[in-house]
Amino acid sequence: MNSSVFARSAIRSRVLTRPMRDGAYHWENVDGSHLPFSTKSKAGLAIKMTLFLGTGFSLPFVAAWWQL
């Protein structure tokens, strides 16, 4: 039993220490390039975030009002 545990741990350590390919995980070092939305217009971003987060926050209250 112990030999199988040691064998599996040796295999696992070899797999985990293998270096990852650098090309698959490269992002340009440009401000905001890793985000799925534009951060150029601060006012537009604030309005969109307020609408998005406000909709999710108000949904339970609207549902409770609708049920009452």
TrEMBL record:
<dbReference type="GO" id="GO:0005743">
    <property type="term" value="C:mitochondrial inner membrane"/>
</dbReference>
<dbReference type="Pfam" id="PF02935">
    <property type="entry name" value="COX7C"/>
</dbReference>
<keyword id="KW-0809">Transit peptide</keyword>
<keyword id="KW-0496">Mitochondrion</keyword>
<protein>
    <recommendedName>
        <fullName>Cytochrome c oxidase subunit 8, mitochondrial</fullName>
    </recommendedName>
</protein>
<keyword id="KW-0812">Transmembrane</keyword>
<comment type="subunit">
    <text>Component of the cytochrome c oxidase (complex IV, CIV), a multisubunit enzyme composed of a catalytic core of 3 subunits and several supernumerary subunits. The complex exists as a monomer or a dimer and forms supercomplexes (SCs) in the inner mitochondrial membrane with ubiquinol-cytochrome c oxidoreductase (cytochrome b-c1 complex, complex III, CIII).</text>
</comment>
<comment type="similarity">
    <text>Belongs to the cytochrome c oxidase VIIc family.</text>
</comment>
<dbReference type="InterPro" id="IPR036636">
    <property type="entry name" value="COX7C/Cox8_sf"/>
</dbReference>
<dbReference type="GO" id="GO:0045277">
    <property type="term" value="C:respiratory chain complex IV"/>
</dbReference>
<dbReference type="InterPro" id="IPR004202">
    <property type="entry name" value="COX7C/Cox8"/>
</dbReference>
<comment type="pathway">
    <text>Energy metabolism; oxidative phosphorylation.</text>
</comment>
<comment type="function">
    <text>Component of the cytochrome c oxidase, the last enzyme in the mitochondrial electron transport chain which drives oxidative phosphorylation. The respiratory chain contains 3 multisubunit complexes succinate dehydrogenase (complex II, CII), ubiquinol-cytochrome c oxidoreductase (cytochrome b-c1 complex, complex III, CIII) and cytochrome c oxidase (complex IV, CIV), that cooperate to transfer electrons derived from NADH and succinate to molecular oxygen, creating an electrochemical gradient over the inner membrane that drives transmembrane transport and the ATP synthase.</text>
</comment>
<feature type="transmembrane region" description="Helical">
    <location>
        <begin position="45"/>
        <end position="66"/>
    </location>
</feature>
<keyword id="KW-0472">Membrane</keyword>
<keyword id="KW-0999">Mitochondrion inner membrane</keyword>
<keyword id="KW-1133">Transmembrane helix</keyword>
<dbReference type="GO" id="GO:0006123">
    <property type="term" value="P:mitochondrial electron transport, cytochrome c to oxygen"/>
</dbReference>
